[in-house]
Every structure is written in C-alpha cells, then in structure tokens.
Amino acid sequence: MNSFGRIWVYLETTPLLGLASTLIAYQLALWISARLRNPSYANPVLIAILLLGGLLLATGTPYAAYFEGAKFVHFLLGPATVALAIPMHANLTRMRRAAPAILLAILAGSIVASASAMVIAKLLGASPDIVLSLAPKSVTTPIAMGVAERLGGNPSLAAVFVLLTGLIGTALMAGIMRLARITDWRARGLAAGTAAHAMATARILQQNETAGAFGGLAIGVNGIFTALTVPVLFGLMTALF
Amino acid sequence: MLKAFTLLVICQLVGEVAAQASGLPLPGPVIGLLLLLGVLILTRGPDRHLEETSRGLLRYLPLLFVPAGVGVITQLDVLAREWLPVLAALFVSTALTLLVTALVMQHLAPAETDEQP
C-alpha cells in the first residue's frame, strides 16, 4: 500500500476526519453564503449539509462513520439549548406582559403545523407512515421522534422531516414576514420557533435578540402543545378521511 | 468560561435525568433551559462569564445542526419515492404556520412602551 493509502486508513479510524470536514464545510458554506450576499434561501446550514452529504455519497462513506467525528459538534447542541435561557431571561418582563397572546399564538401555530402537514400529504397520496411522521415536523427533534414513535410512525423519518422543516422555515420566514407586514420582533421570533424550531430561531437570533428569546420560548411551549395535540388531531383525521 | 460551561452542562444533565425519570414529553436540554431560567430569576441575572459563554455558544448555534442534518442522506430512498407529497406538505404547512403564529401574536400582543435598544 502506498503512503497515501496508509494515511487514509489511519484517518478513517479516527474521529478527526468527520470533525474537520464538518468545520471546513461550514466555513466554506459561510463564505459561499457571504459571496451570495446572505440570501435567506442560501442558509449556511443548508449549504454545509449539501457539501457534506455530497462528499459522503461520492466517497461511499457511511453516515455512521462520519458522525463518529461530527458528534463532538452535535453534542454542543445540548449546552447551547440550555444557553437560550440567557436571552430569555433578558426578555422575561416582555414575555410575562404578553403571556396570553404568546400561548394563543403558539397553540394556533402548533395545530396548523401538524394538521395541515397531515392533510396535504394525505390528499397527495402519501403512505400512512409518511403522514404520521410529518405530524410533529415543526418541533425539536427529540420530541418529534417521540411523538412519531408513539403514533406508530418512523422516528428517523420524523427527524429528517424536522430538519427539512428547519431549512424551509429559515428560507421562507423573511419573505413571509415582509408580505404579511409583521414588524413586531416578538411575533417574528415566536413564528420562527413555532414553525421551524431551533434552526429558524438560530438564524433570527443573529438578527435580533428579542426575536431569538421569543423563538426559544416557542420551541419549548410548542413542543409541549404538539406532544399533547398531535394524537387528538391524528384521531380526528383518521375519522374524517 | 469553564465555570459557565460547567453550569450549562450541569443544567443539561439534571434536565436529562428529570426527563428520564418523569416521562415528561420534553427533551433534557429544554428542561435544563427552564432550570437555568429559574436559577437566573432567583439570582437576578447571569454574571459576566455566563453571559459571554452563552453568547459565544449561541453565535455558532446554526453550525451545531449540521451533523444531524447530514443524516438526511440515510432517508434518500423514501424522499425519492414520495417527494411530491412530502415537499408540498413541508412547504405549505411551514409557510402557513409562520403566517398564523405571527399574525395571532402581532394582533393580540399588547403594544410595547419601553422598547429596548
């Protein structure tokens, strides 16, 4: 075996490759996004996923091997979620003042999110486990997987739908807020967190801290609402269709 | 910075344990968030270190979704088979959810008098 081959075999057994490729792909994605002047459709997360997904498929690397290294980045998602408490604390007074509106807005969003996804997929002829796995698409991954599993859906599929929802919501939100003349950052943040969980919240947090705080609140509250309402909505839909 | 990071990880740990023990439909980190929020209310806000560490971590929040996101390649066969209903449901439903949530909030929330900078 030549020396490059030997080095490659060594690298494949360490987590370094997965970690380095994730960081490099994200730097590249930031650069590409900046070159395009940061349009909402070219979210750096989306670009990095396309780069890495393409790389894995092209080299025939299994996802599990990649994740061995990438899990070090993935792990930080937990502490970062906890850290959302800091912007939320800074906005606590305004949240308390608008509490009834917040709860109603998230409840409405939660029902629209799961009911409309199930109805549209069903009408277009999706198979039952797809319809089920789409229901919790707007909530954070662990809740979505739990909800899908309890209903008899496919948890890994649910996780992918959560991811796609995050990318789609991040791409759509700026345009929709402009069209609907939503100028209130509280409403923008709440919509981001309710419709497209932490991924859209992460994006809007970079634009406005209040929006980020309301997004963080929406992630938690919408998770609870969705876990409670999806079984009822699913029963209702099975009875109607 | 290390002290602040330790606090974040402890909150997550306690959150995970609470999630496992209680059977609540909430993931550990979200319970950890609520826990830290409670601590911040009791201690009247974060100190400078916690503030800086948290902001540093949150600045890179988008990056942290990349590893899980690449997992989409494990479900490509399903997506290739049923791409139309899936994409239609995701696009239309996500747009509707953004619209409904934002409209309800903007119309019902009381106007703010003390706008923060």
Feature tags:
heterodimer; A: 241 residues; mainly alpha; 13 helices; globular; B: 117 residues; 2 domains; 6 helices; 72% helix
Mean pLDDT of chain A: 91
- Can you give the helix content of chain B as a percent range? over 70%
Based on CA atoms alone, the radius of gyration of chain A comes out at 20 Å
Total number of strands of chain A: 0
Question: In percent, how much strand structure appears in the residues of chain B?
Answer: under 5%
Protein architecture, described:
- The complex is a heterodimer of chains A (241) and B (117).
- By secondary structure, chain A is mainly α.
- Chain A folds into 2 domains: 73 residues, no CATH class; 157 residues, no CATH class.
- Helix content of chain A is 83%, strand content 0%.
- Chain B is mostly helical.
- Chain B has 2 domains: 59 residues; 39 residues.
- Chain B is built from 6 helices and no strands.
- In chain B, α1 crosses α2 and α1 crosses α3.
- Chain B is extended and about 50 Å long.
- At the A-B interface, α2, α3, α4, α5 and α6 of A face α1, α2, α3, α4 and α6 of B.
Please render the helix and strand layout as text.
The complex is a heterodimer of chains A (241) and B (117).
Chain A: H1 3-13, H2 16-35, H3 44-59, H4 63-75, H5 77-83, H6 85-90, H7 92-97, H8 99-123, H9 128-134, H10 141-151, H11 155-179, H12 185-205, H13 209-240
Helix pairs in contact in A: 2-3, 2-4, 8-9, 8-12, 8-13, 9-11, 10-11, 10-13, 11-12, 12-13
Chain B: H1 2-22, H2 28-42, H3 48-59, H4 66-69, H5 76-81, H6 83-108
Helix pairs in contact in B: 1-2, 1-3
